[in-house]
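> tool_call: predict_assembly(chains=two)
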Amino acid sequence: MSETKKNNPSPVLDQLIARFGEAVQIADAPHGDTVIVEPTKAAEIIGWLKNEPGLDFNMLMDLHGVDYLPRDPRFEVVYQLYSLKHNRRIWLRVQLGELNPEIESVVSLYLGANWLEREAWDMFGIVFSGHPDLRRILMYEEFEGHPLRRDYPFNKRQPICPPLTKHL
Amino acid sequence: MSLTVEKIERDGIQSQSYLLNIGPSHPAMHGVIRFIARMDGERVEKIEDTEIGYLHRAFEKDCEQVGWGMAFPYTDRLNYVSPLINNCGYAMAVERLLGITVPERCEYIRTILSEISRITDHQTCIAASAMELGAFTPFIYLMKAREYLYELVEEVTGARLTVSYLRVGGVKADLPDGWLDKLPAVLDKVDKVNIEVNKLLARNRIFIDRMKDVGKISREKAIAYGFTGPLLRSAGVDFDVRRATPYHVYDRLDFDIPIGEVGDNYDRYLVRMEEMRQSDRIIRQCLGQIPNGSVTVTP
């Protein structure tokens, strides 16, 4: 991957690579420590970052989907973790394919992931397996499709109440 | 979500809980949201479900249709009582991606306006929560004081709420002549009102009865849910992003971070009140430090 490059990895990244090896790749990012992790390992790595003494990434600051259409793999889920104790942030990016994008939920690690994962499901159609209540959060139940996907037309409308057909 | 009837027993009396639908549109709400509340008498035991999407306007989708510089009006509308802070957050994100450092005068202007916005935001929050408890006087007082600040904001940006004042790499225009000189007098007026409102509320029996031990969030829960800002601090966590990872010129300013103890509504009130005092302090320090010069990057 062209964007993957090593420049002065921080101690956290060194530890991550020593522990998980091939499943973690360092990505270059202007905001700070960022890694691309294997989808099947993501939840395990996040759990390790949270619980490993000396790392203590005890806050999930953000979790969101990204659609990189027409790239393959198309989708990404980005986790931003923060350690209150060490005042340190880390970004994890997980790449998911176009067909059945699915990843393990982290609700059991961070309560705040519940609504964030529901939002990523609602907006991008990314499935979080093991989520206790994965349903739409912003759109209504009857809504079809996932509006933040790049191929969802900007001006498409799905009114839940049909428009009036005659003047009253 | 469970919508079944649950048995309750208290003081030897058998009863059952009931479900109450609140919203999406309700006179006590400042927006649209729907709750299904499980009630034990007049006490909310639990919120069984929350629907938050009624105000979803798909800003991200709109922003994708326009250029980087044209997203500012959308950021105004994320929180219309503190639009300048939202402008700042977006501008800083784009600037970091582009590797731009903005001039020092611009950083000071952003700091001053961010802190003014923090005061207007906290005033609105305290005013509305007091009004919901029936205390209408503090609401009117605080709205009056907020207007003093909005007048300042309007002189700088041309609008009270939909400011769109920031640009990627700077701000729209320099401050008007003499604006900084009249700032301390306005801050004095605002501070006077805040002190007056604090006298009306902080030791008011009705206010305390209805704020203390209501909406309590423990320190552990606040962290697990990823709370930030005054909500997190009121739960007893010493975290302020202005101190932890300073942006603008916060590393050159002296201010205290108020922390709550039990994380109830009353602690949140106290934290917000103190934060306004600290914002006042920050702005006055900026007045002594702000340099002359350009307010945008020059290509």
